[in-house]
Amino acid sequence: MKMKAIRYYGPEDIRYEETEVKEPGDNEVLVKIEAALTCGTDVKTYHRGHPVLIKKVPSGFGHEFAGIVAKTGKKVVGFKEGDRVVAANSAPCGKCFFCLRQEYNLCENLDLLNGAYAEYITIPQRIVEKNLLKIPTGLSFERAAFSEPLANVVHGIEKTEIKPGQTVGVMGIGPIGLMFVRLAKLKGARVIAAGRNPLKLQLAKEFGHADEVIDLKKYQHPEKIFKSFTDEGRGLDVAVECVGLPEIWEQMFSLVRKGGTVHLFGGCKSGTAVNIDTRKLHYDGIKILSVFHHTPKYFRQALEYIANGDVDVNKLITAQMPLEKAKEAIELHSSGKAIKVLITP
Question: What pTM was computed for the model?
Answer without folding.
Answer: 0.96
